Amino acid sequence: MSNLIRTIGKLLPDCDVPWTLTIKHFYYFGGNFFERNEKLDTELNWQRLRTYHPFFKLPETEAEWRSQCEFGKEKDGQDGCLPEKAENLVKVLKTHNIKHLVSISAGEACLEYHIKKNYPELKLTLTEYTLDNVEVLKKVFKNCESVIKLDALKADWSQFAQKKDVCLLFFRLDASFDDQELRKIFDNLYQAGVVNIIYVPNLFLTVKFLLFEKFRAFLNRILGKNLTFAGYFRTKKRSHSFWCDLYQVEDINLCGSGSIKHGAARGVFLKRM
Ligand SMILES: C[S@@+](CC[C@H](N)C(=O)[O-])C[C@H]1O[C@@H](n2cnc3c(N)ncnc32)[C@H](O)[C@@H]1O
Which of 5, 59, 224, 248 has the fewest CB atoms within 10 Å, counting from its CB? Predict the structure, then answer.
């Protein structure tokens, strides 16, 4: 069965879905971790994931965190490609003369660990949604300048605005918000005067991913697994509608190979018009 699925997968085109589309994403977190169709987007649910779920759990010590970041243990936000993504991201930062990076909801911050390693002079601010996550980052990430608690839906962006050498990074934050919320966030960023933004979603929907996502959700449902509503995925065309009248767009690909097989590699560098 899995061989058949793999063969079909190879035959499907891995190209962008060319139209404007947003889909709901459902994920199986295992056992009875969440109630059926429960939503992930509350602070409490993220707190539970970061405290108890093996795939999302935050490290307890600096040594554990360093080793996870260095050896790329397969966990949320980490894959073998992280050092390459960080290296390419640093190239983008240097090209645009960015001296201060503010990473919005850094999670475990392993990408940021590699960014700081590649670009030690860069001033780095991390934010997170849950207080526990903020406390863990303060404990393990000693050489970043500050860690603050921030809800992207309520944030006062003016603290990061008007400065040409400051860039806000939104890495894999897209799923947490619906289309109206994302548009509102970009409107708020623009109105506050934020100049530079790097936005890298979990993915821009491809034909292959879309078909697999639907098939996987169908299989999980008939197997009676508890699926959690884990947010939204969208096409590149839909995503562009959030900023196209506010920011100039430069496409970026953080996986040098150009592959779109790895998640969170393609994105945009946005400069305020
Ligand atoms: C998929 S994780 C990405 C974390 C990290 N950037 C990475 O790539 O590993 C999504 C993050 O969004 C955060 N989040 C959820 N809702 C949020 C909100 N309203 N404001 C800010 N962050 C939020 C969660 O705390 C979580 O760490």
Answer: 224
